From TrEMBL:
Similarity annotation: Belongs to the DHHC palmitoyltransferase family.
Residue ranges constituting the Palmitoyltransferase DHHC domain according to the UniProt record: 114-233
Annotated protein name in UniProt: Palmitoyltransferase
Enzyme class name: transferase
One Gene Ontology cellular component annotation held by this UniProt entry: membrane
Species this protein is from: Lates calcarifer (Barramundi)
A Pfam family assignment: DHHC
Length: 345
């Protein structure tokens, strides 16, 4: 027992290494940008995205995965019958009897009731057991080593925002550092220790941006389809068979399920996801397709349109301000001189 306990403690400690690595990289990037580069006109927007990035990142890390409620545990009598019974068919009959009173509509590939022997609960729809967290996680997406936590119902919004703000953080760094990187490449910067910080800052930010952007794009696609990573690889099984679009309610309602139905909460890492994580509305399949499309798209088109317009305007403004230094007027010239003095130009 003692060696096993020691190994588990060591494993838990090692799981924090990726998180420590990310924090060290962010800490170094802050030093390189604020102390070594020190372009005052960019520090405000830099700190805004850094704050949002760290906020959403730590919310993802410290949000405890949500597990099934006690309602999904077997009652004492049925649990004793289930544990005494050796025949799988009879065990399934016991589970089916209990599941009749629960909002459970998905099954295993063999059409059996989804039951977790480790947690001893009937699994709610979209719930899966995580061997790393050693618990069943509601609407489990995946276990992420970079946050040392399970990404699921309780923190999926935070995870997507973390990817989004990490991408924007890298964009801000690349867009403001590239002019000094070009000067380094053309040998216009003297040999000081500051130029190496600036050089590696640009490369690290660019590499992280490329990798994070691909992951962000994939998860935004999942949000639009109302799928988890697990469901993208293995379609959930309903009474009529596997259906990869079983939980899709149209783009607007799919986005609202993760980010909420109030736009003022979309961009902040505060919990606003819809539902309780135990039951989910399935798509309409028994009415005319045109009627279903009309029902699914209502109450959301205007919000999605505003969401898209806001982001397009924001990225345009961000790009325009970085690629046209003259818009900053005298402040940019002054801070540019300050930064040159800092890096020795």
């Amino acid at each position: 027992m003692a060696p096993s306990h020691a190994l588990r403690c060591c494993k838990r400690a090692l799981n924090w290494i990726p998180v420590l690595f990310i924090n060290l990289v962010v800490g170094w990037s802050y030093y390189a940008y604020v102390v070594e580069l020190c372009v005052f006109s960019y520090l405000v927007i830099f700190h805004i995205f850094l704050t949002m990035f760290i906020w959403s990142y730590w919310k993802t890390i410290w949000s405890k995965p949500a597990g099934p409620s006690k309602a999904f545990a077997l009652p004492r009598a049925e649990k004793e019958l289930y544990e005494r019974e050796e025949r799988a068919e009879t065990q399934q009959e016991i589970l089916k009897k209990v599941a009749r009173n629960l909002p459970v509509y998905t099954r295993t590939a063999g059409r059996a009731i989804r039951y977790c022997d480790n947690c001893q609960v009937i699994k709610p729809d979209r719930c899966h057991h995580c061997s790393t967290c050693e618990m069943c996680v509601l609407k489990m997406d995946h276990h992420c080593p970079w946050v040392n936590n399970c990404v699921g119902f309780s923190n999926y919004k935070y995870f997507v925002l973390f990817l989004a703000y990490a991408s924007l953080y890298c964009v801000v760094i690349c867009a403001t550092v590239i002019q000094y990187f070009i000067k380094f490449w053309t040998k216009q910067l003297p040999d000081t220790h500051a130029k190496f910080h600036i050089l590696f800052l640009f490369f690290v930010a660019a590499l992280f941006f490329i990798s994070i952007l691909s992951l962000l794009g994939y998860h935004l696609w999942l949000v639009g389809k109302n799928r988890t990573t697990i469901e993208a690889f293995r379609a959930p099984v309903f009474a009529n068979g596997p259906d990869k679009n079983g939980f899709s309610l149209g783009f607007s309602r799919n986005v609202a399920e993760v980010f909420g139905d109030q736009a003022k909460y979309w961009f902040f890492p505060v919990f606003s996801s819809l539902g309780d994580g135990h039951s989910f509305v399935t798509r309409l399949v028994h009415i005319d397709p045109e009627q279903a499309n009309s029902v699914l798209q209502q109450n959301g088109k205007r919000q999605v349109f505003l969401f898209g317009v806001f982001f397009l305007f924001f990225f345009y403004l961000l790009t325009f301000s970085f690629t046209n230094p003259s818009v900053h007027g005298n402040n940019t010239q002054h801070t540019g001189e300050d930064s040159k003095e800092k890096i020795g130009v």
